[in-house]
Structure formats: structure tokens, C-alpha cells
Amino acid sequence: MPETQTKAQPTHKPSSSKRRLSKTTIAGLILLTLSIISATLPFILMVVNSGMSTRAVGAHESDVDKLSVAKANEAFAQAEEYNARLFQEGAHVLGEVSDPWSDGKNSVADEDKTYQKMLSIPADGIMATVRYPRLGINLPIRHGTSDVVLASGAGHLYGTSLPVGGTNTHSVISAHTGYDRLMFDRLSMGQGRIGDFFYITVLGHVLAYRVSSIIVIEPDDFSHFAIEAGKDQVTLLTCTPYGVNNKRMLVTGQRVKIPNPAPDPKTVPQDHPEYWLIAGVVLVWLLFMLFVFLIVTKRRKKKLPVRSLPAHHAAGVKNSAHSITSSESNGNGSPIPGLRNHHR
């Protein structure tokens, strides 16, 4: 019997066009990527800029350590004298215009040369620093509350006592909320508590304050910034509610001693809200990459064609079938009785 040759079937490979994602899918992924970037970029900027503020604080304190004790003490004493005159004579102007976030173009604080000379060493533009460990606040304090100042940290409200402490003083420190860096955001969110401690560091002196009141006022209400005789107070000022910013929140602290009742700030752990921001951003991007991976693999699986058997496989199947047929028949080609039924 002549041997039958099996013609090899062509093997079909998926074309490059079938392996590619559709234009609609690619466009959708691009739009989704841009959306993720837009959503996470503000938080990334917060982390980066907050790190810059922390480094500015560290650099300032390092420069202060390099000052001579006599020079630092002289500057500190001049600030105390300034506060004494302020208590006796009163402030003629409070703030830049009427509110730290108003639209005033000229900075009143910049025009007062006597004020600008106070706490002006080292020459880095920073007069002091404010630290609120439980809320992770650690910011440089600069002269005035102009837009430029508040864009990069906290500012001292012109017309209030300089932040050097002492009887008959009330210093007001303001900072933004909801900007591209973490400043007084957590205060605005209502996370400050009565009894919390925060610290002012100025020319090597560390002053501790315990939060005694938290109130919300109208933007044009300055009655709460007056100096109270016999008291040493610092008020942290920011805008609220978060994202609306049409009110002002005042977190006022009374001076207390270190280490009792206020713990030494060196022993107090600093909260790091930026770590949560980093974790959140990383999680969002990981989920996005997982989503893209699933979309790509699913699309490719749907487009893979069914492949024909290669020629040598087809020949092997044909030969196997021929062998089975031969084994089921006797010598003259007739089937062996009973065997067919057995295979059924």
C-alpha cells in the first residue's frame, strides 16, 4: 500500500498588529497616567518642600552654634528691650496691612528697619524656629508675614512681641495651610489639643509653651493678639477650615519650664506626617502599575490566535492512527473479531 504523505500545515504567528494595544487603550492609559501625576504631584511637592524647610531649620541652628556667646546674648538682649518698649508704647500697626493673607502689596515689616535689625543674626533671614513635635511641625520663622515669607515657612506677625519670651509678651507666629508644603496644616485640621507642648528656639535659647486655648475668629479680629500684663504667650495663627480658609485659627500657649512640665525637646519624638504622604503616593503608583499590567496582559491574551500543529506533529499523529488501524486488523486487512467493540 503506498505511503500517504501528510502535507505540513503552515504555522501562523500572531502579527505585530495583533500583539499591539489598540489606540483607544493606549490613549486611555495616557490619560490615566496624567491623572495620577496630577493627583500625586501636590503631595510629592509637599514632601520635597517640607524637607527643605527642615534642612533650613537645621542649617540655621548650626549657624547659631557658631556665633560667639557674647554676640548671641547681645542680640537676645536687644530683642528683649524691643519687647519692653512695645509693651509700654503699644503697637501702631499690626500685621502687614490688616491680615497676613490680605492683598497688601507693600510689606510694613520690610519698611521698619529697626524691626528688621532685631534677631538678624546669623544673616540667613531666619529669626527663630517653631517646633510642635506631636503634629510634626518644624519650621523657620522669618520677619513679617508677607507672601514671600509665608511661601517658605512661618512668619512673625509684625506689631507683636518678638519670640524671645519674658513677662509682658505675646508673640504671634503665622503660617499657611494647604500650600505645597506641610506647615500649619494639621492645626487647621483641628488636630491641636489643649495641653500640647510646642517650642520656640531662638539664638540657642529653647522656650516651651503649653497650649491653653484654641479658638476660631474672623480674619479682621485682632483683639486676641494684645499683650496681657504678667503673661508670656505665643499664638500660632493659621487659616481654617482646611481648603476653605475664610476663618483664622488661634492656638495659644503659655510659657512653661523645661523639663517639667514640658519635656526636653531633644527627648521628644518628632512625628513625621511626610512619611504617610510618601507611603500613600507609592501605594497609588503601585496600584496603577498593577492595573496597567493586568490590562496589557488581558488584551494580549484575547488577541492570541489558535496555532496549527507543526508538520512533524501532524505526521506523527497520522502514523499513530495508521498503526492503530493495522493492529486492529488481521493479516488480510480484516478487523479482528471483538477488538472493535473492545475499543468502543
Describe the structure.
InterPro entries: Sortase, Sortase_C, Sortase_dom-sf. About 40% of the residues lie in helices and about 20% in strands. It has about 350 residues and is α+β, with helices and mostly antiparallel strands. It has one domain: Beta Barrel (Sortase, Chain: A). Helix 2 (about 25-65) packs antiparallel against helix 8. It is elongated, with a radius of gyration of 38 Å. Mean pLDDT is about 80; it is low at about 340-344.
Low-confidence stretches: 338-344
Overall form: elongated
Report the strand count. 8
| Total DSSP helices | 10
By helix and strand content, what is the structural category? alpha+beta
Q: How much of the sequence is in beta strands?
A: 15-25%
**CATH-assigned homologous superfamily:** Sortase
Supply the CATH architecture: Beta Barrel
CATH fold category name = Sortase, Chain: A
CATH class value: Mainly Beta
Spell out the helices and strands N to C.
HHHHHEEHEEHEEEEHHH
Computed CA radius of gyration, to the nearest angstrom? 38 Å
| Lateral strand order in the biggest sheet | 1-2-3-4-7-8-6-5
Q: Describe the biggest sheet?
A: 8 strands, mixed, barrel
Terminal Cα span: 27 Å
